[in-house]
């Protein structure tokens, strides 16, 4: 039809129109026109809604003929011609309107683009920028050539595209100038220029733009935090899977060999054993208040003083991320140095080794360190106390344990937390307060010594200098800036009041980020060989220079202090262990020392056992529980919105009609959702019943109660019924409510009983409401010495008048007429009781409801034996049993709903709940804070401490034995 309309539009000849119209009709399905013509022959009265009645039935299987009637033929051609001409105007109008709409959308899109006119006012003008713009022509052209215009935009016209290109060129030139204003050069990449242009534009913008930028930056930080949390979660899952994979592989090898393989114990190096002891002590006593006095080298210094570079020089690898003046070390990093055949690094909680001779592994290691630091900073903080532990092994490395701390700062920037400065000071004092910690005090030689902040802290913790080693960095710059005599005083310990065991001078690099450790060490040696400052006799001793001499001196001092203190630490832990074991025997003589991990696994097993018991509940019990909960959820709606409005409406026909309408609306809207809600609550209730039953057992341990409750609450919060269940229940319930006839006597009896019980329940509630309104009866007042209040007395008088109305007309309507209200009020006035009409209506509502429910209960009694009369006369039975039929329909809906919910619980929901409980348990098992919060008490704390002390004492004894053998 579209092709025919186009041809009609272009040519417009009557001959062509007639030919095309006939062609359109001939190409249509024969069966379709056969049906239309059959309707036309039967008469226009049966088919009077279209032009199809003028086509005749086909006379052959492949073609059709036009009837001899000239009137029908003329009308046919006229109608087709009119439709074709109308189609032409529709196409022309649509083309014009579509073009206008597309142009309008383009204008709206163009207006929505950001406006950079403020850059024209912010940027300075002059010959300088004119000259510089010429130098950037070639670079700007290279960027423009990269841009590709969407071919679909070409349909909007070349003028629009040129306008868009000019706009983009202008904005691009402004961005390039802004980037150069901040110090960019022509050799920088396009990505760097764009980034600097953005920063410059934001810095030069007005206050409103600055606020928007700060809000955007806050959003970016929040997104980064979320990404870090997700990465941590998946990293834990990956490590867990790797661990399970290794265990499964070992089991497979054992089964394959069909014999038990004795696992060979790998002999650890002395420094590795000592590092493990330190890790255990860090987790046991992080405040150093009890026994963690073992030596470690604490690297402290001002920010950007070169302390990280000193540590990297000792480790012979660039293992830490670097920044341009910003704080990079945000958490303590414990580095264990050990000698080995290969230069590798490894984190304590990971099995991966990083080859430090490969630049790709070094980059990944630095990224991992930065990631762990950012992951440890939570809650808007800048620094963290969480220790990142790693081991670096390689040829020629000195064995020691170093802890790199965040640099001391004197001024905070706007992007730091308010307590950053104090947190760094406390952390530094925390590590230096260990009486056996070796303090490696780093001083920047390129700045004035009086500007140092770290020296005061060191003097407070080690005033005699018995465990402090002073290191002057960047002496190559100090030689150019400082007086040689001043440097001599610093390295001889005469410039500061701070005292130290030794003073050393090192060079930490040439200010290049990409220099390797070998290049830095070579530069350092060349500097000290050629430096005039250190060639002068008496300025400094040869053993006080180079990082190599520093690392050897620190290592010697470290092992000397280890040998002096390790025995004392072992004896202290032995005494602590004896005291804890005695306390345990006195308080818990019949229990074994079970830590949190063991208790958690036991509680996990008990919870999963109850999930298994949930699937073993019989179908009958499920349906009973579901039916009870479902009627509890639905009963109020059935009475208030369906039964009472319909039963109080009047005639039998109107009752049935209203019931059908109400039930259908109910089934289409709220009934399926309420049913799913009842199923979910039943599942939760049955599971809690099983947990409560287990809690009352003889072997129950109440130490798991908080954990079990928390796990179940979290799993239930996450659990939700499948969405498709609502649609499925809606179909089932609608089909069930369509049945309006009770099929047999047993179902009739069940419906009557269901009606009686439901009415009795509502009648009891109404009686209770009336009792509260009217007050206690005469007997109760006498026996319990109670009296009526003024309001209760008024209610009794009003009720007496209302009872007279109901006795006069037992089939009274639910509302009182105006005359009845006036009569009641006047009767009460004659008795001296003044009430308004609202007061009368409030009393009338429960009074009439009780009257109506009693009548409904009598009708239910009369309908007990009326089933055969109902089957003979249908709904027009002499005894009105529409109440029974309604409650039979409700009962059938409850039955089919309970059956469907039971199948969903057994087949789907119980398994999904089991899966969610396992997920919650896995998450809790990885969260040490959560376990400490849920598994607490004197028994748990004492067991945890005893297990840790016993473990540390065993490791200390093992280390001492190996240390004595090395002597």
TrEMBL record:
<dbReference type="Pfam" id="PF00350">
    <property type="entry name" value="Dynamin_N"/>
</dbReference>
<keyword id="KW-1133">Transmembrane helix</keyword>
<dbReference type="GO" id="GO:0005874">
    <property type="term" value="C:microtubule"/>
</dbReference>
<keyword id="KW-0999">Mitochondrion inner membrane</keyword>
<dbReference type="GO" id="GO:0048312">
    <property type="term" value="P:intracellular distribution of mitochondria"/>
</dbReference>
<keyword id="KW-0342">GTP-binding</keyword>
<dbReference type="Pfam" id="PF19434">
    <property type="entry name" value="OPA1_C"/>
</dbReference>
<dbReference type="GO" id="GO:0016559">
    <property type="term" value="P:peroxisome fission"/>
</dbReference>
<keyword id="KW-0053">Apoptosis</keyword>
<feature type="coiled-coil region">
    <location>
        <begin position="206"/>
        <end position="258"/>
    </location>
</feature>
<dbReference type="InterPro" id="IPR045817">
    <property type="entry name" value="OPA1_C"/>
</dbReference>
<dbReference type="InterPro" id="IPR022812">
    <property type="entry name" value="Dynamin"/>
</dbReference>
<keyword id="KW-0496">Mitochondrion</keyword>
<dbReference type="GO" id="GO:0006915">
    <property type="term" value="P:apoptotic process"/>
</dbReference>
<keyword id="KW-0812">Transmembrane</keyword>
<dbReference type="GO" id="GO:0005525">
    <property type="term" value="F:GTP binding"/>
</dbReference>
<dbReference type="GO" id="GO:0000266">
    <property type="term" value="P:mitochondrial fission"/>
</dbReference>
<dbReference type="InterPro" id="IPR001401">
    <property type="entry name" value="Dynamin_GTPase"/>
</dbReference>
<dbReference type="GO" id="GO:0003924">
    <property type="term" value="F:GTPase activity"/>
</dbReference>
<dbReference type="InterPro" id="IPR030381">
    <property type="entry name" value="G_DYNAMIN_dom"/>
</dbReference>
<feature type="domain" description="Dynamin-type G">
    <location>
        <begin position="291"/>
        <end position="567"/>
    </location>
</feature>
<keyword id="KW-0175">Coiled coil</keyword>
<keyword id="KW-0547">Nucleotide-binding</keyword>
<dbReference type="InterPro" id="IPR027417">
    <property type="entry name" value="P-loop_NTPase"/>
</dbReference>
<dbReference type="GO" id="GO:0008289">
    <property type="term" value="F:lipid binding"/>
</dbReference>
<keyword id="KW-1015">Disulfide bond</keyword>
<dbReference type="GO" id="GO:0005743">
    <property type="term" value="C:mitochondrial inner membrane"/>
</dbReference>
<dbReference type="InterPro" id="IPR045063">
    <property type="entry name" value="Dynamin_N"/>
</dbReference>
<keyword id="KW-0472">Membrane</keyword>
<feature type="coiled-coil region">
    <location>
        <begin position="903"/>
        <end position="930"/>
    </location>
</feature>
<dbReference type="GO" id="GO:0006897">
    <property type="term" value="P:endocytosis"/>
</dbReference>
<keyword id="KW-0446">Lipid-binding</keyword>
<dbReference type="GO" id="GO:0008017">
    <property type="term" value="F:microtubule binding"/>
</dbReference>
<keyword id="KW-0809">Transit peptide</keyword>
<keyword id="KW-0378">Hydrolase</keyword>
<dbReference type="GO" id="GO:0005758">
    <property type="term" value="C:mitochondrial intermembrane space"/>
</dbReference>
<dbReference type="GO" id="GO:0008053">
    <property type="term" value="P:mitochondrial fusion"/>
</dbReference>
<protein>
    <recommendedName>
        <fullName>Dynamin-like GTPase OPA1, mitochondrial</fullName>
        <ecNumber>3.6.5.5</ecNumber>
    </recommendedName>
</protein>
């Amino acid at each position: 039809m579209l092709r025919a309309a186009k041809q009609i539009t272009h040519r417009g000849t009557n001959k062509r129109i007639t030919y095309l119209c006939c062609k359109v009709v001939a190409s249509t399905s024969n069966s379709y026109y056969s049906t239309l013509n059959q309707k036309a022959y039967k008469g226009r009265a049966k088919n009077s809604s279209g032009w199809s009645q003028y086509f005749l039935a086909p006379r052959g299987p492949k073609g059709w003929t036009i009837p001899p009637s000239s009137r029908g033929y003329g009308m046919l051609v006229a109608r087709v011609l009119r439709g074709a001409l109308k189609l032409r105007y529709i196409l022309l109008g649509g083309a014009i309107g579509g073009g206008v709409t597309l142009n309008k959308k383009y204008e709206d899109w163009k207006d929505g683009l950001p406006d950079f006119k403020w850059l024209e006012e912010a940027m300075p003008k002059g010959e300088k920028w004119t000259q510089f713009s010429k130098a950037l022509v070639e670079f700007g052209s290279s960027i423009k050539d990269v841009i590709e215009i969407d071919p679909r935009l070409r349909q909007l016209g070349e003028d629009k595209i040129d306008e868009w290109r000019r706009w983009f060129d202008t904005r691009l030139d402004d961005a390039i100038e802004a980037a150069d204003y901040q110090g960019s050069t022509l050799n920088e990449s396009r990505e760097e220029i764009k980034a600097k242009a953005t920063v410059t534009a934001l810095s030069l913008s007005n206050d409103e733009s600055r606020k928007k930028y700060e809000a955007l930056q806050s959003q970016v930080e929040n997104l980064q935090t979320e990404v870090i949390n997700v990465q941590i979660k998946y990293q834990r899952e990956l490590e867990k899977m790797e661990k399970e994979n290794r265990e499964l592989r070992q089991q497979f090898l054992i089964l394959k060999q069909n014999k038990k393989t004795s696992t060979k114990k790998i002999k650890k190096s002395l420094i590795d054993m000592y590092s493990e002891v330190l890790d255990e002590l860090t987790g046991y006593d992080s405040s150093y208040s009890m026994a963690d006095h073992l030596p470690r080298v604490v690297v402290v210094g001002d920010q950007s003083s070169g302390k990280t570079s000193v540590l990297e020089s000792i480790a012979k690898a660039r293992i830490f991320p670097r920044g341009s003046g910003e704080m990079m070390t945000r958490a303590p990093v414990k580095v264990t140095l050990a000698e080995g055949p290969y230069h590798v690094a490894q984190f304590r909680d990971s099995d991966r080794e990083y080859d430090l001779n490969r630049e790709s592994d070094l980059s990944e290691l630095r990224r991992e360190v930065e990631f762990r630091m950012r992951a440890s900073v939570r809650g808007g903080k800048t620094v963290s106390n969480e220790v990142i532990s790693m081991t670096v092994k390689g040829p020629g490395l000195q064995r020691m344990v170093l802890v790199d701390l965040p640099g001391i700062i004197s001024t905070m920037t706007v992007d730091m937390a308010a307590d950053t400065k104090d947190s760094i000071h406390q952390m530094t004092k925390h590590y230096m307060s260990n009486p056996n910690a070796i303090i490696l005090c780093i001083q920047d030689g390129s700045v004035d010594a009086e500007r140092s902040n770290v020296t005061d802290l060191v003097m407070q913790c080690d005033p005699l200098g018995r465990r402090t080693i002073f290191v002057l960095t960047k002496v190559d710059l100090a030689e150019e800036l400082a007086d040689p005599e001043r440097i001599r005083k610093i390295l001889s310990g005469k410039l500061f009041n701070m005292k130290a065991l030794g003073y050393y001078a090192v060079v930490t690099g040439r200010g290049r980020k990409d220099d390797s450790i070998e290049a830095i060490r070579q530069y350092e040696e060349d500097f000290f060989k050629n430096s005039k400052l250190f060639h002068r006799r008496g300025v400094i001793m040869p053993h006080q220079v180079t990082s190599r001499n520093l690392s050897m001196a620190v290592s010697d001092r470290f092992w000397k202090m280890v040998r002096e203190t390790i025995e004392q630490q072992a004896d202290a832990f032995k005494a602590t262990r004896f005291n804890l074991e005695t306390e345990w025997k006195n308080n818990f003589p019949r229990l074994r020392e079970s830590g949190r991990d063991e208790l958690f696994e036991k509680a996990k097993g008990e919870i999963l056992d109850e999930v298994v018991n949930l699937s073993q509940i019989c179908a009958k019990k499920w349906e009973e529980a579901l039916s009870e909960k479902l009627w509890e959820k639905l009963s109020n709606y059935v009475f208030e919105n369906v039964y009472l409005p319909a039963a109080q409406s009047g005639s039998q026909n109107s009752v049935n009609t209203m019931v059908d309408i109400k039930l259908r609306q109910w089934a289409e809207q709220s009934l399926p959702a309420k049913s799913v809600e009842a199923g979910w609550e039943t599942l939760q209730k049955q599971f809690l019943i099983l947990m409560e039953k287990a809690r009352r057992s003889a072997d129950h341990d109440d130490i798991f109660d908080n954990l079990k409750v928390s796990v179940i609450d979290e799993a239930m919060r996450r659990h939700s019924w499948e969405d498709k269940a609502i649609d499925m229940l809606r179909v089932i319930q609608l089909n069930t409510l369509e049945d309006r006839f009770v099929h047999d006597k047993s179902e009739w009896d069940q419906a009557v009983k269901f009606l009686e019980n439901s009415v009795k329940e509502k009648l009891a509630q109404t009686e209770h409401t009336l009792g509260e309104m009217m007050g206690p009866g005469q007997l109760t007042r006498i026996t319990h010495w109670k009296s009526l209040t003024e309001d209760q007395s008024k209610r009794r008088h009003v009720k007496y008048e209302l009872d007279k109305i109901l006795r006069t007309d037992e089939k009274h309507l639910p509302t009182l007429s105006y005359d009845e209200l006036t009569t009641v009020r006047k009767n009460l006035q004659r008795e001296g009781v003044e009430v308004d009409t609202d007061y009368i209506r409030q009393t009338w509502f429960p009074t009439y409801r009780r009257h109506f429910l009693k009548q409904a209960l009598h009708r239910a009694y009369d309908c007990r034996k009326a089933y055969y009369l109902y089957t003979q006369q249908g709904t027009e039975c002499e005894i009105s049993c529409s109440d029974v039929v309604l409650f039979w329909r409700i009962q059938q809906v409850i039955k089919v709903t309970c059956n469907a919910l039971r199948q969903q619980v057994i087949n789907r929901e119980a398994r999904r709940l089991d899966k969610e409980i396992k997920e919650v348990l896995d998450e809790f098992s990885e969260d040490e804070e959560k376990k400490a919060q849920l598994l607490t008490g004197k028994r748990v704390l004492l067991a945890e401490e005893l297990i840790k002390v016993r473990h540390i004492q065993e490791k200390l004894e093992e280390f001492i034995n190996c240390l004595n053998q090395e002597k």
